[in-house]
Amino acid sequence: MGCGIVFDVGTTAVKTMVFNRHFVVEGSVSVEYRLLAPKKGWLEVDSDCYWEAAKECMRSLRKQLGECLKQVDFVTVTTQGETLIPICAAGRPLRNAIVWLDGRAEEESAFLKERVEKTHFYQVTGIPECTPAVPVCKLMWIKRNEPELYRNTAWFLLVGDYMLYRLTGRVCTERTLMSTTGYYDITQSCLWQEMFDIAGIDRNKIPEILETGERAGEICEEAARELELPLHTAVFACTMDQVACAVGAGNVEDGVVTENAGTCLILAMTAQKAALRPGGNLAFYQHALPGKYLAMTNCPTAGIILKWFKDEFCEREAAMAAEQGTSVYNTLGNLAAGVEPMSRGLILLPHFSGVLQPECASGARGVFFGVTLETGKAQFVRCIMESVGFLLRENLEYLEAEQGIRVKEIRSLGGAAKSRIWEQIKADIVQRDMVHMKEAECTALGAAMIVSVTAGWYEKLEHACNAGNSEVERISFSLENRVAYETGYEKYRNLYRLLKDEF
After folding, report:
1. What is the rounded average pLDDT of the residues 170-191?
2. Could you tell me the pTM of the whole model?
3. Cβ–Cβ < 8 Å for 29, 441
4. Cα–Cα distance, 136 to 154 (Å, whole number)
5. How far is CA 317 from the centre of its chain?
6. Out of 3.30.420.40, 3.10.20.30, 3.40.50.2000, 3.60.9.10, which CATH number does the structure's domain 3-238 have?
7. What contacts 311, CB < 8 A, 6 or more positions away?
8. Is 98 helix (H, G, I), strand (E, B) or coil?
9. Mapping DSSP to helix (H, G, I), strand (E, B) and coil, where does residue 143 land?
10. Residue 440 pLDDT > 80
11. Mind listing the pLDDT tens digit for each residue in 216-225?
């Protein structure tokens, strides 16, 4: 029986997973690399690090799996969006990768905002705002500040494109990965010429666009040697990580939302059409399913707030957890479980890095409200967890209102999903069940599912989703805390309204 290999290229690490035809994980390895910050607001990675990390993953997997890797049906890649790598005609990177979080292109962002009306930009790209993170701004920055490098660049690649190039020698990209570039028309599935003209960018420096799951070619001789994989192994183009994650959790039909609460909180819903109304603030990506879209909200700070609180104020709890051989987050969860709903009136606005949805307010900041001399550490912990629950409800209601769809199921992913008390708090606040999936590593799994169709394992993506992941647990909401959280949610919303002008 053959297997499939997925390289999941994230912001700080490459995770490589090997799946069999039943989507059982045969092996998994993660290798980290260092982010570079040469100047304030800049964030880069040595472009070679991505490939070197993939090679190191494969060396470890070979020790784990041995002969299994001689029967590889396919290799594919899913990656972060927006990270940019310029390469020369010989295929060599000309500079460090400019990471998606990089904010250097503020002037270019302002330039484009002045010349492209916001609603027009949104209705073509599905991106609510042309921020410095958008690749078209990064391209302009390179042309303005590194003109010789721009002239010597044959192609501007995203991370996924670069990995496909190293695997096959073919210069190509994939349509969902292009969704957040700022120069791709998501409704027409083509490059947006108007943006190239305004930005002064040569569209011939953008690679050809493949369909999601399309065969990019065979593994080239150099890659086969470096990764120790069979020559002529099929390589397939795959989707960006957020889309892959949704597919891996079975988010391919109306009424299902995936809720991924890690560093940030991301909600994603499959949509039949992109509702790109004037003044809208809901992000839309092309879905892996042709003709469908993924409607998304992104809250920049969620789980990272609890990490911040743990790092700054919970040294004693961390030491106790270390002595007991448990996670400090379990200790904090036990503290929260001993506190009544609404934490004795304590409320947190969790906007430590601004707000993107339901409205964009980059100046918004975190606020603890209702602190008294009786407020203890346990109340702060529960309050943080409840604030993420309120974020979830706020964005869930926004998704439903914008799409005109009642959400029937929330599939919960990310680090917060590991906390039973946190899941119960979220369920009680939104008054919906929180569904846990059998396989929590949904990004690489979703990529394997997508490619399994074109590789011949399954006839349809829906069949692969049914075979690859299923519900393993359901955290049911309680009516007992409904009144407390209805009142608390209204206070949470009112608090933001009152402070909005101050922000």
Report:
1. 96
2. 0.87
3. no
4. 16
5. 30
6. 3.30.420.40
7. none
8. strand
9. helix
10. no
11. 999 999 999 9
